[in-house]
Amino acid sequence: MASVNVSDLSKQDKDELAVSYAALMLHDDGLEITSEKLAKVCKDSGNDVEPYWPMLFAKALKAHKIGDLLSNLGAPAAAGPAAAGGAGPAAAVEAVEEKVEEAEDVDIGTGGFFDEEDEY
What we know:
The chain has helices at residues 11-28, 35-44, 52-63, 66-71, 81-84, 89-104.
């Protein structure tokens, strides 16, 4: 969404973005993330969000710590059983190359959503 102006977003996308930022703000301040606090931050920032958004985010973030979610964003996936089996670096590289080849053959069905000239 970084390449889209906020004014071009749908109401639903704006609401989700506002609640996401509210959750990050509460987390940065070390406060508990509740639906009431999320709704208050959104309201105080001038955003009128649908009431279900703060409830959804509070419920989802109750089960997961934001710090853990943020720290896992760039974490690499495990190499797989071949690497873990102690067969050596060559086997690990080969296993990863096989997975990459398999992934290249998969049609994810974007329906033309991503054009080759788009930058992300």
